């Protein structure tokens, strides 16, 4: 069975972008691959954060992922910093990748702009740690959102450089995208992201989500209720595509184009379809909160399993690099 690896930062509860852009796909793929999902706390500390919140954020993410349908048996969900091999392999990879390759990463450039006071070494090295995450488990499949493609390409580049210098050791992995690799935010202008304040959280209440939807822009050309609209120009319709069954969607398209349905009604229908997806996730989450202790135990034993796999890869890499602590002279 091929190995799948993916990572997610502990930035608090998940939003629709995370779910439809990535997590929903992971839930499906976990049945077809040996699946590892890492809560990447070492990545998260590359921007300023409050140490007092970190553990809570990590555990909350684990609960969110299980609530979305990640299977405790099928998937090895673990906390990155509990497996020292990630940092070990990062250091080895640091010696094969030129700095210039890292400086041209768009995510580095964006984050450096946003965090001018803290452009630290870890921020530049972020994609190398990501490559180490993936290659430590020799994963071939990496399901992510569109924003991560450049990092996956760099991972392949690192594998190629390592292999050509030291002999074939690592596979060249492939990014797997979902059908919706980029979910727009409620502002209709940027991709959905916690930091842009335009996200709909999976655990938000009906009232809170309704107040976000009620204020959201629709097709800008549809000014009056009697104007016909174009669903393809409407951000609200982009969410219908995610959650509303095809037949009902056809009805909405027709209604919008003939001004038969108003934007408020269309948004109410969206709320209903959204909760067909969010309702069960929220229910599972409220049960999982009561099982925190058990979840922590699972994370601990998964980390133990990962340490074993990681150790083998590190020994192999060291051997190839001539670092094996067995004297041969
Ligand atoms: P992050 O929370 O940035 O660690 O992202 C976790 C996963 O969700 C990654 O695979 C991202 O590519 C994906 N993701 C985050 N935001 C979006 C979005 N707005 N649309 C699609 N995928 C997203
Ligand atoms: N950088 C990824 C993100 O922000 C998270 C991540 C870290 C990751 N390590 C990974 C994703 C390894 C895939 C594989 O979404």
Keywords:
329 residues; three-stranded parallel β-sheet; elongated; binds tryptophan
H/E topology pattern: EHEHHEHHHHEHEHHHHH
- What is the averaged pLDDT score? 95
Structural class: mainly alpha
What ligands does this structure carry?
adenosine monophosphate, tryptophan
Q: Please report the number of helical segments.
A: 13
The first-to-last residue Cα distance is: 40 Å
Give the C-alpha Rg: 22 Å
CATH topology of the largest domain, what is it called?
Answer: Rossmann fold
Main sheet characteristics: 3 strands, parallel
| CATH H level, superfamily name of the largest domain | HUPs
Number of domains: 2
Strand portion, in percent?
A: 5-15%
Look at the structure and give the CATH class of the largest domain: Alpha Beta
Q: Which word captures the global form?
A: elongated
Unreliable runs: none
Topology:
Elements: E1 3-8, H1 16-29, E2 34-39, H2 41-44, H3 51-68, E3 75-79, H4 85-94, H5 99-103, H6 106-114, H7 121-136, E4 141-143, H8 149-166, E5 174-176, H9 206-214, H10 235-243, H11 246-257, H12 263-288, H13 292-320
Parallel strand pairs: 1-2, 2-3, 4-5
Helix pairs in contact: 3-12, 4-7, 4-13, 7-8, 9-12, 10-12
Bound molecules: adenosine monophosphate and tryptophan.
């Amino acid at each position: 069975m091929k190995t799948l690896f993916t990572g997610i930062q502990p930035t608090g509860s998940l939003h629709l972008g995370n779910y439809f852009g990535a997590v929903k796909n992971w839930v499906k793929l976990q049945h077809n691959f040996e699946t590892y999902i890492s809560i990447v706390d070492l990545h998260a500390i590359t921007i300023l954060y409050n140490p007092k919140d970190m553990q809570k954020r990590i555990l909350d993410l684990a609960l969110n992922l299980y609530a979305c349908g990640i299977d405790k048996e099928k998937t090895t969900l673990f906390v990155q910093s509990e497996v020292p091999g990630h940092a070990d392999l990062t250091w080895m990879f640091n010696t094969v990748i030129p700095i210039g390759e890292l400086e041209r990463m768009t995510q580095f450039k964006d984050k450096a702009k946003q965090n001018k006071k803290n452009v630290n070494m870890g921020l530049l090295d972020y994609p190398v740690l990501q490559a180490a995450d993936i290659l430590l488990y020799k994963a071939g499949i990496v399901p992510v959102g569109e924003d991560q493609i450049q990092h996956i390409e760099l991972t392949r580049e690192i594998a190629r450089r390592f292999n050509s210098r030291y002999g074939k050791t690592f596979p060249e992995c492939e990014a797997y995208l979902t059908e919706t690799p980029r979910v727009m935010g409620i502002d209709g202008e940027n991709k959905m992201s916690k930091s842009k304040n335009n996200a709909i959280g999976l655990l938000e209440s009906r009232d809170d989500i309704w107040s976000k939807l009620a204020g959201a822009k629709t097709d800008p050309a549809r000014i009056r209720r009697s104007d016909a609209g174009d669903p393809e120009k409407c951000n609200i319709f982009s969410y219908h595509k995610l959650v509303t069954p095809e037949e009902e969607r056809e009805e909405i398209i027709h209604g919008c184009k003939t001004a038969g349905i108003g934007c408020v009604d269309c948004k109410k229908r969206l709320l209903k379809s959204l909760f067909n997806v969010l309702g069960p996730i929220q229910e599972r989450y409220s049960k999982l909160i009561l099982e925190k202790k058990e979840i922590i135990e699972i994370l601990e034993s998964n980390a133990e399993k990962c340490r074993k796999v990681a150790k083998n890869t590190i020994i192999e890499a060291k051997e190839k690099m001539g670092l094996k602590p067995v004297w041969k002279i």
